[in-house]
Q: What sequence folds into this?
């Protein structure tokens, strides 16, 4: 393996969202250290999926590399949601102790670029072996202990996601290629923290020319099999053209 | 004046938009150098309003400091539109020559955080004395020569602005406190590169509870004085609550 030189004061952090057909989840990495005296493994807290960028890669490549390492996936939807450079973002006593412990040459001051990543859960097998990586329900984050300013970053990403799904068809990134309307409704409900009337929701979807009904139906389900739909970005782009709208 | 240490590999660049009641403009800084042999001043090109961040300031403070220096204004609307870290973004021969010339200790590789700034033109007096700072019509940028990747950054900012004005009431940042409906229409036309039917536009505005008609009218104009309106963010926030909508 070629070793790359890191940039000591620039990192990327990915807030990876997944949907398990019931709730929205986020991918976190356990942060732990071995106590020198007792030899015991101490669990400090959890972090977002992030690392410093390498001298020879750009920001998007760094985010892609990190996500590939965690999930094995290449083509993950990625979008920046902000850059963060507060003076004290890596300087709490706990964070300083951990930075000393891992001793990888990170600077005392680090600017991080946050990426929102959306994953089709059904395609992911978590691959990182040497650290614990797992999904946590978004609703649990408020009570969790997190590294650095990662809880703050998480909520910034969630806000950005909730804002974006209202104006761009990115929610479909969280679904498999074929999905049912109940799955789509549950997804929007999980994303926006609300519930929709089934009939109104379906009326709304019927207006979305880019959500296309298929002849295919669910198989082997313990209820009446539902019809499958697919999302077409091409149809979205073509039907969107010329539409000039602005806020009311 | 206290001298601050710069961070050699992190900068901010501000794409400052202004509206002169006719067209959208952007604030650019002339980049020049003195030729050693002839002593002549060579104009290289133009740059966005940017600089490296200081060790002791965060990203927003750096952007605020730079804009204060150029415009004298403190309370400018600022929002990030992306972080940019391409490997070759400051390494063209022209840029390298200029970096050697100014010799301020900038790194060979710089990640920049882009800020979109919206200014009420009527409040601005350009203040920077030692460099040429001026407004350029947005339509001129395509033919201009610009430093680094600043033309690319400019278009990224313009895209972000066009996307945002459709879903958030930020266009009002480009207008004075009191404005006429013709001015508002011209602004949206300039922003979106389109023209609206006057009657339809006014119908749309009538639905915006947060665009509030005043008793006040224009004075000393060579035509029938038009009524003034103001934008209320408070009314916007209050009337927006509870409205759940998503893309169709």
A:
């Amino acid at each position: 393996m070629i070793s790359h030189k890191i940039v000591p004061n620039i990192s990327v952090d990915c807030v990876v969202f997944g949907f398990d057909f019931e709730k929205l989840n986020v991918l976190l990495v356990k942060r732990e250290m071995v106590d020198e005296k007792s030899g015991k493994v101490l669990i400090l807290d959890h972090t977002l999926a992030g690392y410093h960028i390498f001298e020879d890669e750009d920001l998007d490549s760094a985010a892609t590399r990190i996500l590939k390492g965690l999930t094995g996936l290449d083509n993950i939807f990625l979008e920046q949601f902000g850059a963060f450079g507060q003076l004290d973002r890596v300087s709490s006593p706990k964070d300083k102790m951990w930075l000393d412990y891992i001793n990888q040459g990170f600077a005392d001051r680090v600017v991080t670029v946050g990426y929102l990543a959306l994953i089709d859960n059904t395609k992911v097998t978590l691959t990182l072996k040497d650290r614990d990586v797992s999904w946590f329900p978004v609703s649990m984050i408020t009570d969790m202990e997190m590294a650095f300013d990662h809880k703050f970053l998480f909520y910034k990403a969630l806000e950005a996601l909730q804002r974006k799904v209202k104006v761009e068809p990115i929610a479909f990134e969280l679904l498999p290629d074929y999905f049912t309307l109940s799955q789509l409704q549950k997804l929007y409900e999980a994303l926006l923290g609300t519930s929709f009337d089934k009939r109104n929701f379906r009326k709304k979807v019927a207006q979305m020319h880019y959500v296309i009904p298929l002849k295919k139906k669910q198989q082997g389900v313990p209820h009446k099999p539902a019809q499958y739909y697919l999302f077409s970005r091409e149809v979205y782009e073509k039907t969107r053209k010329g539409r000039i709208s602005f806020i009311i």
